[in-house]
From TrEMBL:
GO terms for molecular function: sequence-specific DNA binding. Homodimer. Interacts with FtsZ. This is Nucleoid occlusion factor SlmA. It is found in: Cytoplasm, Nucleoid. Keywords: Cell cycle, Cell division, Cytoplasm, DNA-binding. It comes from Aeromonas molluscorum 848. GO terms for biological process: cell division; negative regulation of division septum assembly. Gene3D superfamilies: Tetracycline Repressor, domain 2. Residues 31-50 bind DNA. Its main location: cytoplasm.
Length: 198
């Protein structure tokens, strides 16, 4: 009988194969038959680890959420400066996308077309959490320094997240040629100088 470690590693192997196929087969629908062939197991074996393809996608979404939200919490614990926090959160998103091209197709919804609605809902909720976190970071500047921004924090948080989402979409649309982090530091310096104008 397989140990729980073997079971876990097979689950991880399936998720890694799914992420790899999302990266190498942009625009193609991934079937369980193709995924089983990629992993080197039967479709029945896939279903022993995941009851449905939606659950496989959920496994990758769990990875996305854990990776991003835990690191955002680390940024907030380590950094106190508002603009540094915003920079690091945006950079985290862009670097994560660049290092995980296949998973980025889930992040921008491209890989979820035709899949279960709850998967798109989970990604939408994740972006809502990131936007709320940015809004809170921006709001704390006013509380800490007694001075806010020209635009309200809700609009600014939306603008910053839209920038990151745009770079992520360009990355997917270019079939991973246009790196999300390209020119980020220069663009950030411009955004930062605009935000800090009184």
């Amino acid at each position: 009988m397989a140990s729980s470690n073997q079971k876990q590693s097979r689950r991880d192997q399936i998720l890694q194969a799914l992420a790899h196929m999302l990266e190498t087969s942009p625009g193609q629908r991934i079937t369980t038959a193709r995924l089983a062939a990629e992993v080197g197991v039967s479709e029945a074996a896939l279903y022993r680890h995941f009851p449905s393809k939606a659950r496989m996608f959920e496994g990758l979404i769990d990875f996305i959420e854990d990776s991003l939200l835990s690191r955002v919490n680390m940024i907030l614990a380590d950094e106190k400066d508002t603009m540094t926090r915003c920079h690091h959160i945006l950079q985290l998103l862009l670097v994560f996308a660049e290092r995980n091209p296949g998973i980025t197709r889930i992040l921008n919804g491209d890989a979820l077309l035709g899949e279960h609605d709850r998967l798109r809902d989970r990604i939408s909720i994740l972006f809502d959490k990131l936007e709320t976190q940015l809004k809170q970071v921006l709001r704390e500047k006013r509380l800490r320094e007694g001075q806010g921004f020209q635009l309200n924090e809700t609009m600014l948080a939306n603008l910053l997240l839209a920038y990151a989402e745009g770079r992520i979409s360009q990355f997917v649309r270019s079939e991973f040629k246009l790196k999300p982090t390209a020119d980020f530091e220069d663009q950030w310096q411009f955004i930062r100088s605009q935000l800090l104008q009184s």
